[in-house]
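Why this split exists: single-chain examples teach little about how molecules sit against one another. For that reason, every record in the complexes split bundles all components of an assembly together and asks for one structure covering all of them. Below is a record exactly as it appears in the raw files.
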Amino acid sequence: MTAVLEVRDLTIGHGGVPLLSGIGFDVARGEVVAVLGGSGCGKSTLLRTLIGLQEPLAGSVHFPGIGGPEQAMSPPQFGVLFQSAALFGSWTLLQNVMLPLQKWTRLPKDAARAVAMARLRLVGLEAAADKLPSEVSGGMRKRAGIARALALDPPILFLDEPSAGLDPVTAAGLDQLILTLARGLSVTIVLVTHELPSILAVADRCVMLDRQAGGVIALGAPRDLATHSDDARVRAFFRREAASRTT
Amino acid sequence: MPSPGFRLTASGGAGDRVVELAGVVTLADGARLWRELRDAVAATETARIDLAGVERLDGGGAALLYAVRDERVGRGRVCELAGATGDVARVLELYGGPPQPEPASPPRPHALLADVGDFAHDLWRSWQSVLAFLGDLCWALARAVRQPRSVHFGEFGSLVERAGTDGLPIIMLINFLVGAILGLQGAIQLHRFGGDQFLASLVGLSVVRELGPLMTAILVTGRSGAAFAAELGTMKVNEEIDALRTLGQDPQRFLVLPRVLVLVLVVPVLTVVGDFLGTLGGMAIAVGYLQQPAVVYVQMFELWVDLLDVGTGLMKSVVFGAAIALVACQRGLAARGGAEGVGRSTTAAVVAVLFTLVALDAAFTWIFSLLDW
């Protein structure tokens, strides 16, 4: 399998103070990799470093054939769904999705509109295209955020807590969409989450971070980690999350 | 990475045409695909877009193929996408699947009558919310009088600093310039009629009774009124106001009353400073332009401007201060939506406050003239 993202000996942190170090993993084309760990363990910081919004303290992030995150950003070789969806509040969902198309393609307006509508149709939001983000639900905002992230057909999608704060049915719908993108369109997906049902439903592999250990403590298929991991912290994480789901 | 691109060949006549697509059909080549494919199927009764030769198709390419097909079908022509296999067929299926239903509100008619009705309804709702706000405030004020500690005085000092001290330099400068401009205009006219000595009364009365309070209030509106509306608007859209309520705090007493009190106290003080600087601006013109001794200007000022004049200006400024805080806070708390809603409420607050100030000033002037003050 060809790697589309290579992370080598990465140290991340804030203000020069390391938070996690020695992070290293590859992500293959069409793979769904979940970055997990407890609250405040540095998942979102890692994501921000992968997409170039934050400089690593050491190590490298490399998109083979493209370069580092800076090169991969213009034109964007990846799409990002932020935790809050980060849609522009004064624009309709359609305008939000059209924005990258108008910036980075030479499509005439009607063609860009057709492409944006197709993205919205893909995520089930065609009928809400002319609504403002404040007029739709949290789940719909997340799906619109995914449609915008998909606008330029990026080979990689980074999703920050896609199902956080959503009801189980909506979260399951988002998981299904992620699977559709990965299996149907061969989009590589890196998602940051600690929602166990999502991890088990969509992830091919997990990268588990731990603040106390200061780096990656486990790397592998979620079901293997849940049942066969040698690390008690990993087993405990899956047990706790599973327990919190059943209570 | 440059896209390898696609090849397009069209065969057949205007009645029945086959367009063969081959190679890589992606969004990167979208503009060319859109142009060439539309040209190829234009003016045909029946078109068949053969995708058998397509090696790779991405979502953007699929979206454009469907858009071209739908455009033809929408014009009553026949157009079909055919021959796709493997991954190409899968992508095509993903993008061409039946749209998932979403609850959509029925389209509303854009009739003039409906617009007038909407406007009237919005106006009524807006007045309702203003009345409700004032009612809540009166209730909060009554409770605050009985329990003064229930008012949140924690940020009182910083509010006084932001609304008062920080605004002092610009208020001094603007009032000085207004006094000077008024003085210059007056001096030119008065000089023609040999009435130089009346400049002090012209500037003094105008500044102390009208311009000082009004200009100061306008500047406080631009600085503090807009800030209050934006601050409370942001808190509203971030659900912080709801959070306050769930914590048993009354937003009126926690947020609005302190701001009203601050402006009721600060605006008169700023007005006194503004009056002084405005009068000084007039004196600068008297001394510099009319060559009048400063002592004459001061004596004439004392002769024509009495404490009642200063008092009427200060009465106005107290009411102006309360009006600025009330209208700005009401608009801020009425914000809805996201960042755009905050922007809208801030703009609305500034416009509403300015209108209120001018209306109040007119009312005061009329009342004072009736009372012969």
